[in-house]
Amino acid sequence: MRSLLLALPFAVLPLTVAYAHDEHDHAHGSLGAHEHGVAQLNVALDNNSLELELHSPAMNLVGFEHKAQSDQDKKAVEMAKQQLANPITLFGIPAAAGCKVSKTDLDSPLFGGAEEHHDHGHDNQAHGSHAKSEHDHEHAHSDIDADYTLTCENPKALTALDLAGLFKQFPATHKVNVQAITAQGQKGEELTPTQTRLAL
User: Fold this and answer.
1) DSSP characters for 150-200?
2) pLDDT tens across 74-103, in order?
């Protein structure tokens, strides 16, 4: 997803560059990285392919950022994974668009196992101690990334997304900064529990 978004002409949306490089900024404490209550969503609609990339502090989605130790913590992580596995509900994708999820990629240090750093395995080997410092930093302030690819039979019906489901499922999320690109152009918008709709 990052490669697609980085390839798009987001020149009129300078904040997108900050979002796209969140992981790098995050490790170095730069602006726009890790703020509790705030998440980022990148949206790209190209013909019948809809791509969504949600980046959020773990605190917004599970209520903590340490590795799940107690049964309660583990249940919260599993619940979040189940909720994140249903982007059609979370992002209010219109049924008329006939979208089906073709790929889901959930990534966070909290999820543990092989998923923990599968996107950046080559970086860990290449950069050694630098990768380790980022890894340690992530455990101090853990994030959750959820990337989705959907194929839509009738993309013309995809006139809007509604994040009411996301705000309902994850009430600790107070604001989502959205960057979107479609055939109609590019836009940035700030969504909240009282303003959940993104016109595409």
Assistant:
1) EEES-GGG--EEETHHHHHH-TT--EEEEEEEETTEEEEEEEBTTB-EEE-
2) 999 999 999 999 999 999 999 999 999 999
> CB under 8 Å to 181, separation ≥6 — which residues?
5, 8, 10, 43, 44, 45, 187
- Tell me how far apart the alpha carbons of residues 20 and 9 are, in angstroms, rounded to a whole number: 13
Residue 89 belongs to what H/E stretch?
Answer: helix 87-90
Query: Is the C-alpha dihedral spanning 74, 125, 55, 106 positive or negative?
Result: negative
Which structure tokens are listed for 194? 């009282």
Amino acid found at 26: H
**Residues constituting the chain:** 200
pLDDT averaged over the chain? 80
d(CA 32, CA 80): 23
pLDDT category of residue 137 using cuts at 50, 70 and 90:
very low
- Burial (Cβ within 10 Å: 0-12, 13-18, ≥19) of residue 184: exposed
Q: Supply the DSSP string of 103-146, one letter for each residue.
A: EEEEE-GGG-GGGGGGGGHHHHHHHTHHHHHHHHHHHHS-EEEE
